[in-house]
From TrEMBL:
Name this protein carries in UniProt: AB hydrolase-1 domain-containing protein
Record lineage: Eukaryota, Viridiplantae, Streptophyta, Embryophyta, Tracheophyta
Transmembrane spans: 33-53
Alphabetized UniProt keyword annotations: Membrane, Transmembrane, Transmembrane helix
Protein species of origin: Rubroshorea leprosula
InterPro entries linked to this entry: AB_hydrolase_1, AB_hydrolase_fold
Domain AB hydrolase-1 positions: 98-356
SUPFAM superfamilies: alpha/beta-Hydrolases
């Protein structure tokens, strides 16, 4: 009886063992297949990631499917076109000739000092102003090779082709104000004088004390800190960072009003300024994103170490609001302490958009052209 029982148990165990063995064999992948699946998945993720960080090609004005050309344009030496707009007196009749450089999310029509001064000022002083679309903005061709230096050379060539003479004035606002530093470095012999209006500051300039730049940098909105870090350290991720949905993009690109002071909001609402769609009609990458990569990248020189060129006959002015939430006044104060040859105008209670305030454009122009504050 015991022997029979043992035989039944043995048979049962054998069948159970066979079923277990068969079950384990059914889930075993063929040799090498698992590695191939992992490799394919990895390559697929790389391909997806590469596509995600690639910006779309710009829609150049005048190209098939691109925006129409409506502005006068000059052709630069490298084949690009630069669109411009003229204001004030005719070139030949003007005593003072000024090139205006627009800011971020703007274009040639946002020539603040040409649009908002008193009507009689142009005739009284004899002023001509030309504003232009910076590369990739409005109707100017993109410049994938844009650098800090190339912007100054574009301005010089614009002035030459329009016949502004051997010397002229340059006024820049915000990101365009930062371009004026390039003019002071690379074409000082072509300048009578310049005005920088709330010029954007590169927190990574080597001339800033590390503790000062870090302290001011950390006062920015967290999303702006990250956007600027990306533009500086990994510029090839700038497009992805400002278009992905996982993290908030640069506040100005996202249109967040928190970056404006109370005065700014009142001025912007009063003058209904919002040209984002028109200014970036060729795409955000070669306008906004390229701006960030150049402005906050590694510069070829440090503006805090500039010396005034003996070739420049006039003066250099820097205007700044002390309640500017986009460009910290603390760093502007440090810059003018390092560069005592700059005439500094700090406006109490003013934000970033102070040039729109009544009378300010007149003051900026008079201080630059005739030395009248």
């Amino acid at each position: 009886m015991a022997a029979g029982t043992n035989r039944k148990i043995a048979a049962s165990s054998a069948r159970a063992h066979t079923r277990t063995a068969k079950k384990s064999v059914s889930f075993k992948l063929p040799s090498g297949l698992f590695k191939k699946i992992v490799l394919v998945f990895f390559v697929g993720m790389l391909a997806w990631g590469y596509q995600a960080i690639q910006p779309p090609a710009p829609k150049k004005c005048g190209s098939p499917g691109g925006p129409p050309i409506t502005a006068p344009r000059i052709k630069l030496r490298d084949g690009r076109y630069l669109a411009y707009k003229e204001h004030g007196l005719p070139r030949d009749a003007a005593k003072f000739k000024i090139v205006f450089v627009h800011g971020f999310t703007s274009w040639r029509h946002d020539a603040i000092v040409a649009n908002y001064p008193s009507p009689e000022l142009f005739n009284e002083l004899g002023i001509y102003i030309v504003s232009f679309d910076r590369p990739g903005y409005g109707e100017s061709d993109p410049n994938p090779k844009r650098t800090v230096k190339s912007m100054a050379l574009d301005i010089e060539e614009l002035a030459d082709q329009l016949g502004l003479g051997s010397k002229f004035y340059v006024i820049g606002f915000s990101m365009g104000g930062q371009v004026v530093w390039s003019c002071l470095k690379y074409i000082p012999h072509r300048l009578y004088g310049t005005a920088l209006l709330a010029p954007a500051v590169n927190f990574f300039w080597s001339g800033f004390p590390a503790n000062l730049s870090k302290e001011v940098f950390n006062q920015l909105l967290p999303q702006d800190c990250w956007a600027l870090r990306v533009a500086h350290y990994v510029p090839w991720l700038t497009y992805w960072w400002n278009t992905q949905k996982l993290f908030p993009p640069m506040s100005v690109i996202a249109g967040i009003p928190d970056v404006f002071s109370q005065q700014d909001l009142g001025l912007v609402n009063k003058f209904a300024i919002n040209h984002r769609e028109q200014s970036t009609r060729q795409g955000d990458y070669e306008s906004l994103h390229r701006d960030l990569m150049v402005a906050f990248g590694s510069w070829e020189f440090d503006p805090t170490g500039l010396e005034k060129s003996p070739d420049m006959e006039g003066s250099v002015h820097l205007w700044q609001g002390d309640e500017d939430r986009l460009v910290p006044v603390t760093l502007q104060r440090y810059i003018v302490q390092k560069l005592p040859w700059i005439q500094y105008h700090e406006l109490p209670g003013a934000g970033h958009m102070f040039p729109l305030a009544e009378g300010i454009s007149d003051n900026i122009i008079k201080a630059l052209l005739i030395g009248k504050n």
